[in-house]
Design a protein that fits this description.
GO terms for molecular function: [methyl-Co(III) methanol-specific corrinoid protein]:coenzyme M methyltransferase; uroporphyrinogen decarboxylase activity. By secondary structure, this protein is of the alpha/beta class. It is built from 15 helices and 10 strands. The longest helix is centred in the middle third of the chain and has 24 residues.
Length: 357
């Protein structure tokens, strides 16, 4: 296992100044796999801030990646607004029931208080531990599910998509109250000294059409991005699945970084929007990181780097989405070691050698 020469914060600051660094930033997005590193059950995250923070810290210490985030699942914000969530003993939480059954109940929905409602206070407390203990060496973030995705969980995915056609005004009302929850939570993240990041899986072109995304999703996500930017913080956003038809919309929101799924063409993304936004991605989290060998991981990291390392606004080696919980540690180490082996500035002949060209 190779060792880093710089801390993630030292690396980020040097790159921002155009100075030499030891390697490109790399973030495997270990997600709830941090429980395996720390030796706890995922269900312990739901009630104990100390456990969330300790697991994130343990995973960062184990692998040395370039960003740590408090984020457990997609549903704390909807749950805080009345949704029911299922908590397996040792797997990621899932949605049990939306906050309301019918649009006639929409008036009962209220924005969540991040310091009082649901699991949000647990996450806020975890952020305090995280920033206090490792915030001087690695960038610390608080994850938010964006207002469009969260709105789906308030009424239910099937009902939401029907409302696009039957009652578009109701969709806007759902997104508006969802946005207020997201803004309040973003402010709470900022108050702890962390940087908000946005996950918007329901914005994927795999899920909704670009037309409906532009009508119902983009305006509210953009308002959240602009709110965070107004507080002096850059925003990174991840959208799962196919996104090529909405790349320009994402750029228009003002995000600083865009994390893309492995089903997207990384080189095309760089060529289309890399001059305006940092690109993060996109090693396959399932067939490569979870099911592949360390050599498969090493090759995939080199292939992704070959496609995007010279992106004008910067490139971060990353998995295409959150890693499966039981991703082998040796494969996460292989990802980090490949980034260290590649180094920076990147030499294409080195990448060709790693790929096997």
């Amino acid at each position: 296992m190779r060792k880093d020469i710089m801390t993630p914060i030292e690396r980020a600051k040097a790159m921002a100044r155009g100075e030499s660094v030891d390697r490109l930033p790399c973030n495997p997005n270990a997600a709830n796999g941090v429980a395996r590193v720390y030796g706890c059950k995922i269900s312990e995250f739901n009630t104990c801030a100390r456990t969330i923070a300790n697991a994130q810290i343990a995973s960062y210490r184990e692998f040395g990646y370039d960003g740590v985030r408090i984020f457990t699942d997609l549903f704390p914000w909807a749950e805080a607004m009345g949704a029911k969530v299922i908590f397996p003993q040792d797997n990621t939480a899932d949605l049990g029931a939306p906050a309301i059954d019918d649009i006639s109940e929409l008036g009962s929905l209220q924005p969540a208080d991040p310091y009082r409602d649901g699991r949000l206070p647990v996450h806020i407390e975890a952020m305090k531990y995280l920033i206090d203990e490792i915030g001087d060496e690695v960038g610390c973030a608080g994850g938010i599910v964006g207002p469009f995705t969260n709105a789906f969980f308030l009424i239910g995915i099937e009902k939401m998509t029907k409302l696009f056609f039957k009652n578009p005004e109701a969709v806007h009302r759902l997104c508006e109250v969802s946005l207020e929850t997201c803004i309040r939570y973003a402010d709470a993240i900022l108050a702890q000294g962390l940087t908000p990041t946005i996950s918007e899986p329901m914005s994927s072109c795999t899920v909704v059409s670009p037309k409906h995304f532009r009508i119902f999703g983009a305006p509210y996500i953009k308002r959240l991005v602009q709110h965070i930017k107004s507080k002096g913080k850059p925003v990174t956003m991840h959208i799962c699945g196919k996104t090529d038809k909405i790349w320009e919309d994402v750029v228009d929101m003002g995000v600083a970084g865009f994390s893309i799924d492995n089903v997207v063409d990384l080189r095309q993304c760089k060529e289309s929007i890399g001059d305006r936004v940092k690109i993060l991605g996109h090693v396959d989290p399932a067939s490569i990181m979870y099911a592949g060998t360390p050599e498969d991981v090493r090759r995939a990291v080199a292939e992704c780097t070959m496609q995007a390392w010279d992106s004008p606004k910067g490139y971060v080696i990353m998995s295409g989405c959150s890693l499966p919980v039981d991703t082998p540690f040796e494969n996460i180490h292989a990802m980090m070691d490949a980034a260290r082996e590649i180094g920076y500035p990147v030499k294409t002949d080195k990448l060709e050698q790693m790929i096997g060209i």
